[in-house]
UniProtKB/TrEMBL annotation:
InterPro entries: Flavoprotein-like_sf. This is NADPH-dependent FMN reductase. It comes from [Ruminococcus] torques L2-14. The lineage of its organism: Bacteria, Bacillati, Bacillota, Clostridia, Lachnospirales.
Amino acid sequence: MVKKVLIISTSLRGGSNSDILANECAKGAKEAGHSWLNL
């Protein structure tokens, strides 16, 4: 079953821990076949 995933990243610095975590969540959603949106 395809899920919709919304990732809200509020870090002001690119490459911060929060930014890396958001990108890894998006990567996992993509690999699992889910649709995702990263804000």
